[in-house]
Design a protein that fits this description.
- The protein is an alpha+beta fold.
- The protein has six helices and five strands, in the order H-H-H-H-H-E-E-E-E-E-H.
- A five-stranded antiparallel beta sheet has the order 2-1-5-4-3.
- The longest helix is centred in the N-terminal third of the chain and has 50 residues.
Length: about 170
């Protein structure tokens, strides 16, 4: 205590009026409260943005999965690549792979994808983030109640990260 009590700033505060000390204490507590509130809003918005991106990728995968049952049943690679080419309209979608129920790759997006394609057995059903931070989603392809294949979609989250970065700049 003697170390802090001997500095010039602390002597000045110690010798200040009670009114000044009360105003300073209230101001400091208001600043701390505003910082906590802003942090809470930013964290909530970050979670909302990530959930919205997950739902966006899920809905983008549902339509091709719904329309690809015949492509998978008849192993039509060209038709599958044409169906997956609709992902060109979504700049964040990096890759999509259509699998048959036995794990055979029917079609890929982009069509000349030279990247390593994961085996269908290694994929989880639903949505997750991979080690590179990309959002992955697997949608089952159904005919009636029977699963005939899967659609695997990988999207980057650059748009979400840019929005989050903008929030921090604004705050």
């Amino acid at each position: 205590m003697s170390f802090l009590g001997n500095t010039r700033a602390f002597r000045r505060i110690r010798n200040s009026s009670i009114r000044f000390k009360l105003i300073a204490m209230m101001s400091l507590s208001c600043v701390v409260g505003v910082v906590f509130c802003c942090s809470g809003f930013v964290l909530n918005d970050m979670q909302i943005l990530r959930d919205a991106k997950r739902k966006q990728i899920q809905s983008q995968a549902e339509m091709p999965a719904f329309n690809s049952s015949a492509v998978i049943l008849f192993s039509q690679q060209h038709a599958g690549e044409e169906l997956l080419s609709a992902f060109r309209a979504q700049p964040t979608v990096e890759r999509a792979v259509m699998y048959s129920v036995d794990g055979e790759v029917i079609a890929t997006y982009p069509a000349d994808s030279a990247r390593r394609i994961p085996s269908v057995e290694s994929l989880l059903q639903g949505s997750w983030q991979d080690q590179d931070g990309r959002l992955c989603h697997v949608e089952s392809v159904m005919v009636g109640e029977e699963v005939v294949g899967s659609l695997y979609v990988v999207a980057n989250v650059d748009d979400v990260n840019a929005q989050i970065r903008d929030y921090f700049i604004i705050e």
